[in-house]
Each structure stands twice: as structure tokens, then as C-alpha cells.
Fold each of these.
Amino acid sequence: MSTAPEPEPRDPKPALVFDDPLDQQSPDDTDRGWGERPAGDSAADLRRFLDEKPPHHL
């Protein structure tokens, strides 16, 4: 008797998820999501202010 080789297992297909997406916290629900920066030193804050200042505020 010859034994046939077993077929290679295929990757399972991803399951459909029917959760309510509004139940999950999105990145913009946090301070970090709105671009808030962690507390830093005042020199870095001044440097950022001067770098991001619009040209008409010279």
C-alpha cells in the first residue's frame, strides 16, 4: 500500500468580526491622538514654538 502525502495545511481565513466599532477607543479619544506631547522641558517648548510660528508672527 502506498500512502498519499497529506496536503499542506492552508492558512485559516480571517474571521469576520461583527463588533460595534464605536465600543472601541480610537486614537483621537486620547491626548496623544490629538497631537499632545508629553511634558517636556521649557527650552524644547520654546524651540517648538519658534519652529512652528507662522511667518506673519515675526
Amino acid sequence: MEQIELFAIESPCKGVCENSAKGFCKGCLRSRDERFHWFTLSNEERFHILELCKQRRVRLLKARQERLDAQSDKALPYGMEDEPAEDLLSGLN
């Protein structure tokens, strides 16, 4: 059963709005479908997407650190490149 929320969960968009090679937003780490359907989703579905974005961010940061430690050119997850990532989801804890 879906819990009733007093306020709608806002979009995590940070205005970066640039796709990675695999279609994930470089700002919020949502997929194309997640961005496209955001305003038709329930709060429960939105919360789930925010949790997925947090997991993606953790995986991306871990992969970047592993690359640095190994001085490797291994590809990063989600089609991301080497540009620095802002801590865009830090307020969602």
C-alpha cells in the first residue's frame, strides 16, 4: 500500500541536462525513461528512482576512485566520462 505523502517529491534535476553515452543524465543520474516519465509517476515510484540515483552515484564514485588508485583507463559506469561530479544528491539522505 502506498504511503500518503504530504508533499510531492520534486524532480532531482540540477539543470545540467546533458546525457552520458548510455543515456543517463550527468547531473541527476536518471535514465531517459526516468526523466521523461517523472511527472506521471507516483511519489513511491519517484522515491524508488531517487534511491536508484543514489546507488548509481555511489557506484560511479567508487569506479572513479578505483581508476585513480589503479591508474587505469577502465570505462566508468553509465557512460560517464572523466569530468568531476558534483555532490548533487547529498541533500537526499
